[in-house]
């Protein structure tokens, strides 16, 4: 029973990886760098993109917006004149809790790949399943809000392990919280030793310049910067 | 293809409901009221339980703690002398993103059902899949932190619809946020008109007495209070 389940899961992930590679080929053909942006609900992914994407030095960004329902985030980004495509996951179930390679593939015809250099795929807010499904990205970035507590790396280890950069957001609230940054760093190093991290307040703009530099380097070198 | 997928999902949910009813029968046999507690990661479920459960008037509580990995929350509750059983979901996949009826069933032999009146099942932090799987509960409560923003009911409608009570947590941070409570209420009423809501700070204790009263009434009447 357990073995059957594991087999089914492996088949699903194998099929996903095959489609992810096809996406990858299409992105390469258009010379587009792709970032898979993940976090818990409400960690501030969209606000981060609103702040970081306009005026990227020499890089034309675009966004694929994944949500269970609605187009709130896409509307916010469109207001900033960022090309954005909405992808809703509420077709089956009560909504898929993550994007997979096939969902991203279905959105490819709607993406202006010829007119952008960097595609940010904003995943569904969830700290579990998005980490399990590659979608054809060059790099994975996760946003962890200090309001969520310093124990999250221990409770959702795969998510914190499956990324090249951890953006610690909402640091403007630190003085009002019991959040212990040393403890967070310790837990993070426990599951992903030495992973690159940036302290940011998407709301005030603190730390955004560092994120922008990272995005520009990612795009121009097409690989996660050291 | 789409129809096959829907069929498979329906079969999965049917099987889950059958097991949920068996759980329900076992809980009834022991006269235990069961609450399914759900939220996004880091919304404050465990802190809420730490504050609300000790000293409940005439009600002996117990907790079934669902996590992908680790036993941090269970340890915190055990420190408060609350009977707690840990259930980890990291067996298949990189971790299941929700509890289902069968996982709860597997934990039944470890639960002190003869010695408690109220069992709180703390689900995995996730705003999508936990709402889809009944586990044999009397009532479902979700915790929404004001730090997550006022748009969450629109983005995760099933979760906000599938509960009898919405606890709006971390209100001690309201003065430091751009959160608009009227907008949140409006969005919440849009997906679940008139659902009972309570404003709480689990950290400062504000509003906890109201939560306790609700829990006591739920347990003594075995149904969600009006």
Structure description:
Two copies of one chain form a homodimer. Helices cover 38% and strands 18% of the residues of chain A. Chain A is built from eight helices and seven strands. Chain A has helices at 2-29, 45-52, 72-79, 101-107, 152-155, 157-161, 181-191, 208-221, and strands at residues 33-39, 61-67, 84-88, 118-122, 139-145, 165-169, 196-199. A seven-stranded parallel sheet of chain A has the order 3-2-4-1-5-6-7, with helices on both faces. In chain A, helix 1 (2-29) packs parallel to helix 4. The longest helix of chain A is centred in the first third of the chain and has 28 residues, at 2-29. The radius of gyration of chain A is 17 Å and the shape is globular. The model of chain A has no long low-confidence stretch (mean pLDDT 92). The A-B interface holds A 2, 5-6, 9, 40-42, 67-70, 72, 91-97, 124-129, 131-132, 145, 147-149, 151-152, 154-158, 170, 172-173, 176-178, 203 and B 2, 5-6, 9, 40-42, 67-70, 72, 91-97, 124-129, 131-132, 145, 147-149, 151-152, 154-158, 170, 172-173, 176-178, 203.
């Amino acid at each position: 029973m357990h073995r059957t389940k594991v087999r089914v899961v492996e088949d699903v992930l194998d099929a996903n990886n095959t489609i992810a590679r096809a996406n990858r080929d299409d992105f390469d053909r258009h010379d587009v760098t792709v970032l898979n942006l993940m976090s818990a609900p409400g960690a501030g992914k969209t606000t981060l993109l609103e702040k970081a994407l306009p005026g990227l030095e020499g890089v034309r960004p675009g966004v694929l917006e994944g949500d269970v329902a609605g187009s709130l985030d896409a509307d916010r980004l469109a207001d900033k004149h960022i090309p954005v495509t909405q992808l809703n996951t509420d077709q089956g179930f009560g909504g898929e809790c993550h994007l997979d390679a096939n969902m991203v593939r279905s959105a490819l015809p709607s993406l202006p790949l010829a007119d952008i250099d960097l595609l940010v795929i904003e995943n569904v807010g969830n700290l579990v399943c998005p980490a399990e499904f590659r979608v054809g990205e060059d790099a994975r970035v996760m946003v962890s809000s200090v309001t969520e507590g310093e124990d999250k790396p221990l409770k959702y280890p795969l998510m914190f392990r499956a990324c090249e950069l951890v953006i610690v957001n909402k640091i403007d609230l630190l003085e009002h919280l019991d959040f212990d940054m040393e403890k967070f760093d310790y837990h993070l190093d426990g599951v992903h030793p030495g992973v690159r991290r940036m302290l940011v307040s998407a709301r005030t703009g603190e730390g955004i310049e560092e994120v922008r530099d990272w995005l520009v380097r990612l795009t121009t070198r097409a690989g996660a910067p050291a």
